[in-house]
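Before a colleague's protein record goes any further, I have to sign it off. Thanks in advance; the entry in question is below:
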Amino acid sequence: MSGAESVSDTPITRLKMADLDWATDFLTNVFLAGPPITKLFSPPNVERQLRYFMHCNCALALRLGECYATRARDGIALWLPPGHTSMTVVDMWRAGMMWAPLKYGVAGTAKVIAFAHHIDAMHTRRAPMPHYYLFLTGVDPSQQRQGVSTSLLGDTLKRIDTERLPVYLETQSAANVDIYEKLGFVVVEKTAFPMKSSVFNWGMLRQPQP
């Protein structure tokens, strides 16, 4: 694995900046196969705009947090640690997010900003305490419901439990809620997006486990 650092005795490897392009491509392909996030973007540029979105998010997590892939490369998890669970202007600049108006257009940028504002507001309401943020996850569609999420997240969650810190995430997929609940997460809020009332955001919190 180019640029990847093994995590001893676990089914995952830690990614480095050299893995940015691979992580971007992987998550783009995963989310193309599974809306609703693609509803943020406008045909015929959905794939190009989604790729830019994923590139920025991967770059942010690689700089500020921890990024892991399964050894089989069929799943990715991006984590942000306490103290870095919200983005500053400098963070956005370094991740390349300031080019959004050129990538999305005026209307597209407005939708992405509204999306970001909505999830940030929920995040702030539901996790004001120091916590880890499970920023973004993706599993190869052909491997979903095969236990990949447990392999991908299990050891990191156990380590965070030893730190006695909670974990926050959000998902826009009802199917994912059940998966996360089995890992100890609880739904703390569910709200429709203002610009897409058919798309919901679930905020989920996991308290430290014994």
Remarks:
- The chain has one domain: 5-206.
- Residues 18 and 108 are 29 Å apart (CA to CA).
